[in-house]
Automatic annotation (TrEMBL):
Swiss-Prot/TrEMBL cofactor(s): Mg(2+)
Catalytic activity, as annotated: pyruvate + phosphate + ATP = phosphoenolpyruvate + AMP + diphosphate + H(+)
Taxonomy, superkingdom: Bacteria
Keyword annotations: ATP-binding, Kinase, Magnesium, Metal-binding, Nucleotide-binding, Pyruvate, Transferase
PROSITE patterns for the chain: PEP_ENZYMES_PHOS_SITE
Lineage of producing organism: Bacteria, Bacillati, Actinomycetota, Actinomycetes, Kitasatosporales
Enzyme class: transferase
Domain Pyruvate phosphate dikinase AMP/ATP-binding: 77-302, 310-359
Record-stated family: Belongs to the PEP-utilizing enzyme family.
Protein's name according to its UniProt entry: Pyruvate, phosphate dikinase
Length: 915
């Protein structure tokens, strides 16, 4: 086999020695996805396994990259394609597009990562006005030949020449209306011949040129169109949604045609080795007789279940079952397969590791362990934190009174409620206005991707588990019900008629259950998922009602917990949240925000503190706040007994505890006009003006408050120390850690620490209790990260506040920029994902890494954690593992996700070490 492990990038117009741009299917293998794309690599793998794959060749992603960079194919590409085409023609015993017995080929995209329906495919290349006659004669079926020709012109016109696809669809519908038939298979050869003439006229009118008759020109233009489709709008949108890099390029697969539209003994289908919705073993898929190419996944004609193939063509069915078993054992995973039967002969057109729902992913992973195909470490790599998060979504309350109006195919699970919309534009528009919507279509196509992303769920009246809607929804983790045939969807009138004649107009609320396929009128109440109940301890693995899913989650989580090095803490500010976090597996509190304790009934005390004119008044306010703060911490230490609790001293600007300046000004003005007493309001207004800042997030907050407001931080430290002493006296095990926020220089920390140490010593002496309270800081300013070595001299731990660190590194105000220009930045590809969602490794991440290394250089036993919400983001957790942090901290409901990803990160690191 010829290999191209490290291909050079060719310069346009130059032949680069050693670069190979085209591979025969016999030359590749499944490990060359970077070069051959997923489709080409797997076609090569199936060829190597001796499975029935039509002969063909793959143009590499490297050729695509050269084309995208220069606008022209590499100089050597045409000659390589010619050589491989000649070899293919010799193997098949016929030439591309010859008039008597033409060789026809398909040209299909194939990127490294599956992007279903997002890029272009053209079938039946090589047909022309002359060769269609030869195909009819060779096949002995004139209707088949003209049907293949009209398909070529339709696909080529839309994908290669840029003709509006609706023009072809309208002409096809008109032909069926004229013939008084409902499906295209009922059109006769003469009808299709007329349709070809109509399609050619459409091409001529829309492009100013005739449909190309030269078969090589057809192939070359199709190859270029596939390259171009990599940068098509829908492909770019899909890559952003799925976080697929934009610089990979696509391979192009040129494959000799086999025909599923040769009559009732032919057909095309899609099969799964296990149910992609549930993970259960069995016969899953769709089959369509007398059909070609995209007919199955397009949902235009309703398919039959794959199991029916046993009755239709038992020989092909038995062979397919054997091949499916071979592929699953070979890939050791759920396989998604496309096949065609040509007059009783089975051909394999594609296989790939299939997309699946979150529940199926966990079930399949544990099933494969039990079958001995993979080990626990590999099972952990087969699931993700994002999938676990999906399993924690609520489900519909089965006890609620509901009005079920239809039932379709359960394509992608979840409980989705929203207003009915009938096109992508409306779905996006309403969603951006804050509305929850359900996108309803007869069937979806790649142009609906915007709306599918915006919607809570997708409902179609056509198609099955292998339709476009189902495959894309599963990939996005979006609730989907397909093939609800009882529903009459009228997209032009923006309405849907349900059995019994009731009409659902656009804007009416409906509910869809992607786990059962049920469709309901109105809003159905939801209840917690069984996975959440398991994490909260209300459902136990091994119990009769636990179910396969809970058992699978339990097994994988147990392994993740055994493997992970990162500990997982919670962001929690009260005992209730702390107890919930502990049930979810938290190993302590990584961030207790004390400012949340100053709201509600205590706001008046804070106002008095801010308004204090004398030291005595300030001391009195602090004295009243002290016991309240102490009780907060007593409750926290009790809830988290034996586990660390990191308490951040007051952080936000003081003006946040005062009334809104506009509202207060109005109150003062009204009181003055009515000559009513308003001394307190006036003092408040003066204080608000005094504390008003143009940019408060960069103003008087954090450690600066502790230095400017005497006694504020010492009151909080005393409350923590006294609470810890009280808990210890009650035979508890409080493990408090005091965190100083917004430190930018070691001198700030030294001053606050000196005061804190003094207060802790006083409490120890007064209570006779030995208190070991660690004192550390948040690293949330670039200067703190850059001087971390100095700061570590006064800090026993660092906790990276990545929310603020992201703001200060980027110069972003999160509350403003996400609503103003982040959407444009994501659409333009400046961001692959918001830096507030997943850590910016190159910028913010570099500072985290730098600070971690510098801090430990000064203090080798320095404890390192992160307490921004990045701590619960799957991709960020892997980064924090690599950097060497000790723990991550996140909101309670993200704790299981962080635990899982911490385990996956450890296993991945082990795998890298072994390599």
């Amino acid at each position: 086999m010829s290999e191209n492990k490290d291909p050079q990038v060719a310069e346009h117009g130059k032949s680069v020695e050693g670069v190979k741009f085209v591979y025969d299917f016999t030359e590749g293998n499944k490990d060359l996805k970077d070069l051959l794309g997923g489709k080409g690599a797997n076609l090569a793998e199936m060829t190597n396994l001796g499975l029935p794959v039509p002969p063909g060749f793959t143009i590499t992603t490297e050729a695509c990259k050269v084309y995208l960079e220069s606008g022209e194919e590499p100089a050597a590409l045409r000659d390589e394609v010619s050589a491989h085409l000649e070899a293919l023609e010799a193997r098949m015993g016929k030439k591309l597009g010859q008039t008597d017995d033409p060789l026809l080929v398909s040209v299909r995209s194939g990127a490294k990562f599956s992007m279903p329906g997002m890029m272009d495919t053209v079938l039946n290349i090589g047909l022309s006005d002359k060769s269609v006659q030869g195909l009819a004669k060779q096949a002995g079926d004139e209707r088949f030949a003209w049907d293949s020709y009209r398909r070529l012109i339709q696909m080529f016109g839309k994908t290669v020449l840029g003709v509006d696809g609706e023009l072809f669809e309208d002409a096809l519908d008109k032909a069926k209306e004229t013939k008084k038939v409902t499906v295209d298979t009922e059109l006769a050869a003469a009808d299709l011949k007329k349709l070809v003439a109509t399609f050619k006229k459409i091409v001529k009118k829309e492009t100013g040129r005739d449909f190309p008759q030269d078969p090589r020109e057809q192939m070359d233009l199709a190859i270029r169109a596939v390259f171009d489709s990599w940068n098509g709008d829908r492909a770019k949108l899909y890559r952003r949604q799925e976080r697929i890099p934009h610089d990979l390029g696509t391979a192009v697969n040129v494959c000799s045609m086999v025909f599923g539209n040769l009559g009732p003994d032919s057909g095309t289908g899609v099969a799964f080795t296990r149910d992609p919705a549930s993970g259960h073993q069995g016969v899953y898929g769709d089959y369509l007789q007398n059909a070609q190419g995209e007919d199955v996944v397009a949902g235009i004609r309703n398919t039959v279940p794959l199991a029916d193939l046993e009755r239709i063509d038992k020989k092909s069915y038995d062979q397919l079952m054997q091949i499916m078993e071979t592929l699953e054992n070979h890939y050791k995973d759920l396989c998604d397969i496309e096949f065609t039967i040509e007059r009783g002969r089975l051909w394999m057109l594609q296989t790939r590791v299939g997309k699946r729902t979150a529940g199926a992913a966990f079930r399949i992973a544990t099933q494969l362990v039990d079958q001995g195909l993979i080990d626990e470490a590999e099972a952990l790599q087969r699931v993700t934190g994002a999938q676990l998060a999906q399993l924690m979504f609520p489900r519909f309350d089965e006890s609620a009174k509901v009005e079920q109006v239809a039932r379709g195919i359960a394509a992608s699970p979840g409980a989705a409620v929203g207003k009915a919309v009938f096109d992508s534009y409306t779905a996006v528009k309403w969603s951006r206005s804050g509305e929850k919507v359900i996108l309803i279509r007869r069937e979806t196509n790649p142009d609906d991707l915007d709306g599918m992303i915006a919607a809570e769920g997708i409902l179609t009246s056509r198609g099955g588990k292998t339709s476009h809607a189902a495959v894309v929804a599963r990939g996005m983790g979006k609730t989907c019900v397909c093939g609800a045939e009882e529903l009459e969807v009228d997209t032009k009138r923006r309405r849907m008629t349900v059995p019994g004649g009731h009409v659902v107009e656009e804007g009416d609320v409906i509910s869809i259950d992607g786990s059962t396929g049920k469709v309901y009128l109105g809003e159905v109440p939801v209840v917690p998922s069984p996975v959440v109940e398991y994490f909260e301890g209300r459902m136990h693995a091994g119990a009769e009602d636990a179910g396969e899913l809970v058992e699978a989650v339990h097994r994988i989580m147990a392994f993740a917990d055994r493997k992970r090095r990162l500990r997982v803490r919670a962001n929690a500010d009260n005992a209730e949240d702390a107890l919930r976090a502990r049930r979810f597996g938290a190993q302590g509190i990584g961030l207790c925000r004390t400012e949340h304790m100053f709201l509600g009934d205590r706001r008046e005390l804070v106002e008095r503190l801010i308004l204090a004119d004398t030291e005595a008044e300030r001391e009195e306010s602090l004295k009243e706040l002290l016991p309240l703060q102490k009780q907060d911490f007593v409750e926290l230490f009790e809830a988290m007994d034996g586990l660390p609790v990191t308490i951040r001293l007051l952080d936000p600007p003081l003006h946040e505890f005062l009334p809104d300046i506009t509202e207060l000004s109005v109150r003062v003005a009204l009181a003055e006009s009515r000559q009513e007493p308003h001394e307190n309001e006036l003092r408040l207004l003066q204080a608000v003006h005094r504390l008003h800042e143009q940019n408060p997030m960069l103003g008087l907050r954090g450690v600066r408050l502790g230095l400017v407001i005497p006694g504020l931080f010492t009151m909080q430290v005393r409350a923590i120390a006294e609470a810890a002493a009280e808990r210890k006296g009650a035979k508890g095990d409080p493990r408090a850690e005091i965190m100083i926020p917004l430190v930018g220089t070691v001198q700030e920390l030294e001053i606050v620490r000196e005061e804190a140490d003094k207060v802790i010593a006083e409490v120890q002496e007064a209570t006779g209790t030995d208190l070991k309270l660690a004192i550390g800081t948040m690293i949330e300013l670039p200067r703190a990260a850059l001087t971390a070595g100095q700061i570590a001299e006064a800090a026993e731990f660092f906790s990276f506040g990545t929310n603020d660190l992201t703001q200060t590194v980027w110069g972003f105000s999160r509350d403003d920029v996400e609503a103003s220009f982040f959407t444009a930045y994501l659409e333009k590809g400046i961001f692959g994902v918001s830096p507030f969602e997943t850590i910016d490794k190159d910028g913010v991440g570099s500072l985290v890494k730098l600070a971690a290394q510098a801090g430990r250089q000064t203090r080798p036993d320095l404890k390192l954690g992160v307490c921004g919400e990045h701590g619960g983001d799957p991709e960020s957790v892997h980064f924090f593992h690599e950097v060497g942090l000790d723990y991550v901290s996140c909101s309670p409901f993200r704790i299981p996700v962080a635990r899982l990803e911490a385990g996956r990160a450890a296993v991945q690191a082990e795998g890298s070490d072994h390599r």
